[in-house]
Amino acid sequence: MDAKEIDQKREPGQEEEAKPADQAAEAPSPGPEPQQLKIPTEMPLLPVRDVVVFPFMILPLFVGRETSVAAVNEALGKDRMILLVAQREMAEEDPNPEGIYRAGTVSMIMRMLKLPDGRVKILAQGLARARIMEYKTQKAPYSVKIELVEEPHLEMNLEIEALMRNVRETLEKIIQMGKAIPEDLIKVLETIQDPGRFADLVAANIGLAVKDGQELLELTSPLERLRKVNEFAHKELEVIEMQFKIQSQAREEMNKTQKEYYLREQLRQIQQELGDVDEKAAEIEELREKIAKAKMPQEALEEANKQLKKLEMMHQEAIEASQVRSYLEWLVELPWSVSTKDKLDLKKAKKNLDDDHYDLDKVKERILEYLAVRKLNKDMKGPILCFVGPPGVGKTSLGRSIAKAMGRSFIRMSLGGIRDEAEIRGHRRTYVGALPGRIIQGIKTAGSNNPVFMLDEIDKLGMDFRGDPSAALLEVLDPEQNNSFRDHYINMPFDLSKVMFITTANLADPIPSALRDRMEFLELPGYILEEKVHIARQYLIPKQLKENGISGKNIEFKDETIQTVIGGYTLEAGLRNLEREIGNICRKVARAVAEGRKKKIAIDSESVSKYLGVPRFLDEEELDKDEVGVATGLAWTASGGEILMVEASVTNGARSLVLTGHLGDVMRESAQAAVSYAKKRLKDFDIAENFFDKHEAHIHVPAGAIPKDGPSAGVTMGTALVSAVSGQPVRRDVAMTGEITLRGRVLPIGGLKEKSLAALRHNITNLIVPDRNKKDLEDIPKELRDKINFTFAKTMDDVLNAALVGGVPGKKNKNKGRGKAPAGKARAKTAVAKTGIRKKKARLSHGKVVHA
Predict the structure, then answer these.
(1) Confidence class of residue 9 from pLDDT cuts 50, 70 and 90?
(2) Using one digit for the tens of pLDDT, what is the confidence trace for 384-420?
(3) Cα dist. 191→176, 279, 677 in Å?
(4) List of residues 6+ apart from 442 with CB closer than 8 A
(5) Which of 130-134, 268-272, 558-562, 756-760 has the highest mean pLDDT?
(6) Dihedral, CA atoms, 196, 202, 203, 206, nearest 10 degrees?
(7) Which pLDDT belongs to residue 810?
(8) CA neighbor of 504 nearest in space, from 390, 409, 638, 418
């Protein structure tokens, strides 16, 4: 890189360099006069940046570009002469001829030194002005043809003498103001009578911009150059005077502040003598009392007293004083030793939990177990519970109910979208506006060191360049470590072991494994129809009546009305949309009451559409009849279970498998396994074994814009494909789930309860599930099991026998009926069937379908 050399130090072990540019004013110049040298008309060109070289100027240059080093070497190989020309743009690395000025200075390389990093350091002396006439080479390093610029000779006259004297006086003032210009420059200028050389010497030392320096270099008239230099010198003097004025004002402001400080101190002493209140002393005393009452640990107490002494010595309005004051306020307001007393009456706690939430027996049982252990062991550490379930099932409200049942404060902190580690651990006090993290802020808000602390949406944590919040939570959510949690702002260990942390998540998979290992997971599955009706009757309707200013005297909901709203207007595992639709009805009734209606309004199934409009979810046409090549599968999503219609067809064509419907890699592999199984079963259906050599199989899962993945659609794909090949229709009242292997075995799946709920919502009561999922029947409520006929399949033969109309020739299914209602009990129809409304799978667009 070419740049003007500023450093005057010698390189280690090298000879001393020549004087730099700011000492080039000495006369006579070390090199020969231009008139004594024969300057050639053709020479190498060296573009320089950030400096304009004038005749008789001596300056060192660092040469770093390869093309520039080559130009220097070429000049050294000839007569040591080179043309130094400024480039127009300093940042341009390889300037072309258009990027280089036309006028420059012929210079002689007086000395050259190679540096260890490959660069070259040269000492050059300007000889004469020159103008580029022609570029001999079109690529760097450039060789140019030049023409020397002849300057007219001027005799000394009054104007020239006055200009030269004016410039010298201006330079003297500039030096007096502190400008870094050699003091010997004035003495040298007094000996120079040539106005052109006088102007060049001044221009080389007052630090002009490249544009202004180039303008001076291109002026051939010495008188014009002298006038221009005089103008630039006056401008530089005005800039320095303004700079000096600004510095003086700053010093005056500083002196004013010091004066105010002394006056305030004197005023404080006078007030003390008169017996007036000293605000600072009163504040210090108040903080001292708060520190004594806070009952901090010894380490925190010592730090608080240390900071209090520091505050006592500071001026009250100093910036650092406000930072220390804020830190002390946080220390004294934290509940170091303040705890709420737990309500350990188990019967009363159970009643409170039952009053606030319906069902959720496993979660309630776990809370009662905690209270029982707490009653027997006062020093137990708080558990880290994680409620996992789809949106709207009551995870967040359950945390509030737990705090109420235990008699503790409740703090909720949403983790959704947090990407900054400082949100958890806080900022260090060195930063302006620093604060503790949200954990310590929540503890302070709670006013006790043992609240119920809910970390909501822990699966939505993010990370970026500001840190990983999930890593910062590792210490918070570890019962073995959180007894000495250190916030960056407080920088003192705070005991979090008494806090009962509860986290919530829609999915457990996105939670980092290290964090997942520290938590105890409790699943909250979706609600069945009867549960939703009960919850709406007991909780949602009274809440909406109160919020909308009406009562049971104004409106009446019947059970079939609630079932109609659930079946036709909501499609969810939770209750948020149901509550929203009930609120919608209540608002319309509230308007009628406000307009003067006094008669009670009864909402029945037929009048629901009057308030909520046309039902959003209609019948599935695929379920109306048994079809060939169409099988009903069951899927799991973050918002509950869904059904999937899997279609298969076989056409004449090349030997291949076509998969459509936005399927993931795992689902594609399941389809390939299904095809391999179908090929082995061709002879059971009296089909030629080379059938697939001449036919193309196509498997499609509708709703192609929705991503789908997972292995549990394997048996559904296999059934649809075998149906398409054999021509046997699949029973419309059967849904299935399970992973298929090449040998035809059926492997277990997850989410059986959610999938069973999805089947019931669509009036399907015959389910084919893997035999190894029998254990999961315990998670399904008895009223739900009574409505479903489960067929437990070990192999695909069991699936085909139960799913195909007529079954597999020569095979008999022995597993059908296991897990269904007791013998003699008629198959129950769901309340959804009573309303005549079934749900549509368009809602799948709200989440990725996962079959495992």
Answers:
(1) very low
(2) 899 998 888 888 888 888 898 888 999 999 988 888 8
(3) 21, 70, 107
(4) 411, 413, 451, 453
(5) 130-134
(6) -170
(7) 62
(8) 390
Selecting among 498, 755, 820, 839, the annotated active-site residue is 755
| Share of residues in the chain with pLDDT > 90 (%) | 23
CA 709 to centroid of chain Cα atoms: 27
Q: Residue 402 and residue 441: Cα distance in Å, rounded?
A: 21
**Cα(477)–Cα(300) distance, integer angstroms:** 23
Set out the domains of the chain in order of their start, with CATH numbers.
3-148 (2.30.130.40), 279-333 (no CATH), 346-523 (3.40.50.300), 529-612 (1.10.8.60), 621-850 (3.30.230.10)
Summary count for the chain: helices (H), strands (E) = 27, 27
d(CA 594, CA 603): 18
CA distance 671 to 721: 9
Q: What is the DSSP letter of 536?
A: I
Query: By three-state DSSP, how is residue 206 classified?
Result: coil
Q: How far apart are CA 818 and CA 791, in angstroms?
A: 6
For 604-640, the pLDDT digits (tens) are: 888 888 888 888 876 455 457 888 999 999 988 766 6
Judged against a pLDDT cut of 50, whether residue 465 lies above it is answered with: yes
Show the DSSP H helices in 575-642 as ranges: 576-594, 608-612
The catalytic residue among 712, 723, 726, 756 is 712
Residue 789 DSSP SS3: strand
Contact 709, 844 (CB under 8 A): no
Helix 346-356 and helix 361-376, axial crossing angle in degrees, nearest 10: 160
| 148 Cβ neighbours under 8 A, 6+ residues apart | 39, 106, 128, 129, 130
Contact 21, 89 (CB under 8 A): no
pLDDT for 825 equals: 34
Q: Of the candidates 651, 384, 620, 635, which has an alpha carbon nearest to the alpha carbon of residue 498?
A: 384
Active site includes 755?
yes
